[in-house]
Amino acid sequence: MKRFEQIDWGLIPYAEAFAKQEQIFNLCLQQKLQGLETHDKLIFCEHPHVITLGKNGLYNNLLYSEDFLKDKNVSVFRSNRGGDLTYHGPGQMVVYPIFNLEKYNLGLKSYINLLEELVISLLKLYDIKGQRLPGATGVWLEVENSSKTRKICAMGVKCSRYITMHGLALNVNTDLDYFKLINPCGFTDKGVSSIENELKKKINMDVLKSQAHELFQSLF
């Protein structure tokens, strides 16, 4: 039996995706509170250039003024996800699972751990060793060498009554120069990378999404 529906919004402004997510999230929450069946969604998309701040995000980690960013066609959006500050842009695979975690017997911490495991497994298909960094969410590279540690996948989640929204952002063919506009996730001593940067070649996003979907089916 199909446990969730896969949706691809393509390239969509962050504010529009946020509004659509909230609509689905609120419907699932309402269904759950009424004792009705919830219908989980696995949403893939990319965003035009945008910097988002989580609930605990600090404007100090924004290294340039919003006017400067506007001139660069980079918008700024205060989100209700967890986490600090990150960049989204074309070439980044963003995944928003709107799931009822009770269906999968998961708490929030276990859910985030499973998302990390999923990305680590996905990177392994490309012979990239993804790792966890103690005290930080997401997926990292070369954590054993602090001078080379770099983040390849950011995560931030909102969860209410076990219904989730937001999710993960994996740098695939992302222009990493945009990360110079911020302290990614509040870190000043860690770099960022992408699959393209590691392999020195462009990655087929459709193939990657299909592989990610298969992993979601096997892990959830």
Question: What does this protein structure show overall?
Answer:
The chain is of the alpha/beta class and 220 residues long. 29% of the residues lie in helices and 30% in strands. It contains five helices and eleven strands. Strands 1, 2, 6, 7, 8, 9, 10 and 11 form an eight-stranded mixed β-sheet that branches. The protein has a three-stranded mixed β-sheet with strand order 4-3-5. Strand 3, helix 2 and strand 4 form a beta-alpha-beta unit. The chain starts with a strand and ends with a helix. The model has no long low-confidence stretch (mean pLDDT 91).
Indicate the radius of gyration in whole angstroms. Answer: 17 Å
User: β content, as a range?
Assistant: 25-35%
Count all strands and give the number. 11
The averaged pLDDT comes out at 91
Query: Unreliable segments (pLDDT under 50, ≥5 consecutive)?
Result: none
* Helix and strand run: EHEEHEEEHEEEEEHH
* N/C terminus separation: 12 Å
The helix content is 25-40%
Oligomerization status of the protein chains:
single chain
Overall body shape: globular
Major sheet description? 8 strands, mixed
Please identify the structural class as seen in this structure: alpha/beta
> With helices defined by DSSP (H or I, 4 residues minimum), what is the helix count?
5
